[in-house]
Design a protein that fits this description.
276 residues; alpha/beta; UDP-N-acetylmuramoyl-L-alanine:D-glutamate ligase; nine-stranded mixed β-sheet; 9 helices; 9 strands; globular
């Protein structure tokens, strides 16, 4: 009989509250891959199940609120979390269910206000955006809207960097501690904007010539949550997560007939190649 190895120290725990992506590139699947790559223990509360592949979302089905509440109570009541990330919450009722629990949790919360998929498919029911604004954003340590999500939250169009800053200020007034408006859909060199109080931090990156970017938003938010669980302050966590997701986009690969995913394991592959 081979003796057991000594127990490893328990890694920081991060809870992802989101939907499942059957294609494996976004949603809960992307969350868990990101968390593993960054050295934390990922846990899940599934709010919806999607039928999804590289060409689009063919349908989604919400879980009952009591199932979502039971998952939250089960994980947080026994294991706990050093950070929490929310993604696809699907409906106003599920947003409210999640907020009922998170209101009593001290861990930092990263909110990815998922509304529409990479392919343009709606993932949030009518009316849910109001509950996100009224109840979820005041609980957020960081909220990470892309340009379309920032427009939905603010009701204003975003055509350039000045609009991004104004949108960030408007979203900040809704209660989150920090707002990260992602600018990748604007022309030119992509720049994300992190806003917290009077502090404005711009995070530029080179534009990567690839269409395989499925899961970028989920991955970025989960990376931020992972870094917060590891002890980073918000600006440091966001910058580290930006570096990770930029590498994942650069290593994205084709899958199926449409848009492929980012490569969550790019650092592991790079390290493995360096050894050979």
């Amino acid at each position: 009989m081979v003796p057991a190895r000594p127990h490893s120290p328990t890694p920081p725990r991060v809870l992802a509250i989101a939907g499942s992506d059957s294609g494996g590139g976004a949603g809960i699947q992307a969350d868990l891959k990101t968390m593993l790559a960054l050295g934390v223990h990922g846990m899940t509360v599934i709010c919806a199940v999607t039928a999804q592949n590289s060409v689009g979302v063919q349908g989604y089905w919400e879980l009952p609120p009591e199932a979502v509440r039971a998952q939250l109570d089960s994980v947080l009541g026994d294991i706990g979390a050093q950070a929490i990330k929310t993604g696809m919450l699907a409906s106003a009722e599920l947003v409210a269910t999640v907020c009922d629990v998170l209101a009593d949790v001290a861990a930092p919360v990263v909110v990815d206000p998922v509304a529409i998929s990479k392919h343009g498919d709606r993932l949030l029911a009518e009316g849910a955006i109001d509950v996100i604004k009224d109840r979820l954003l005041p609980l957020a340590t960081v909220v990470t809207p892309n340009l379309l999500e920032a427009e939905l939250l603010t009701g204003r169009s975003i055509a350039g960097p000045a609009d991004m800053l104004e949108a960030a200020k408007m979203i900040s007034a809704m209660g989150p501690q920090w707002v990260l408006v992602k600018g990748g859909h604007l022309p030119g060199r992509p720049v994300d904007l992190l806003y917290g109080g009077a502090k404005v931090i711009r995070l530029p990156a080179e534009r990567i010539a690839t269409e395989h970017t499925h899961g970028t938003g989920c991955t970025f938010a989960s990376a931020i949550a992972s870094r917060l669980a590891l002890g980073d302050e918000v600006p440091t966590a966001v910058k580290a997560a930006k570096d990770y997701v930029t590498g994942a986009i650069s290593a994205g690969f084709p899958l199926g007939a449409g848009i492929g995913p980012v490569d969550h394991g790019w650092q592991l592959r790079t390290a493995a190649l360096a050894r050979h």
